[in-house]
Amino acid sequence: MELLSGGDMLVRALHDSGVEYIYGYPGGSLLHVYDAVYKQSHVKHVLVRHEQAAAHMADGFARATGKAGVVMVTSGPGATNTVTGIATAQTDSIPMVVICGQVPSHLIGDDAFQETDMLGIARPIVKHSFRVTDPVDIPEIIAKAFHIAETGRPGPVVIDLPKDMTMPNERFEYNYPKKVKIRSYSPPQRGHSGQIKKAVDMIFEAKRPIIYTGGGVVLDKSSDKLRELVDELGFPVTNTLMGLGAFPGTDERFLGMLGMHGTYEANVTMHHADLIIAIGARFDDRVTNATGKFCPDAKIIHIDIDPSSISKTITADVPIVGPVGSVLDDMLALIRSSDETIDAEALASWWKRINDWRPRHGMRYDKNEDGLMKPQEVIEAMYEATEGKAYVTSDVGQHQMFAAQYYKFDDPNKWINSGGLGTMGFGFPAAMGIKMNFPEDKVVCVTGEGSIQMNIQELSTCLQYGIPVKILCLNNGSLGMVRQWQDMNYEGRHSSSYMESLPDFVKLVEAYGHVGIRVTNRDELPQALEDTFNKYNDRLVFLDVKVDEKEHVYPMQVPLGSMRDMWLNKTERT
Amino acid sequence: MSQSQRHIISILLENEPGALSRVVGLFAQRGYNIETLTVAPTEDETLSRLTMTTIGNESKVEQITKQLNRLIEVVKLVNLTEGPHIERELMLIKVKAVGAQRAEIKRTADVFRGQVVDISSSVYTVQLTGTSDKLAAFIEAIGPSCVLETVRTGVSGISRGEKVLSL
Ligand SMILES: Cc1ncc(C[n+]2csc(CCOP(=O)(O)OP(=O)(O)O)c2C)c(N)n1
Ligand SMILES: [Mg+2]
Question: In angstroms, what is the span from residue A94 Cα to ligand 2's centroid?
Answer without folding.
Answer: 27
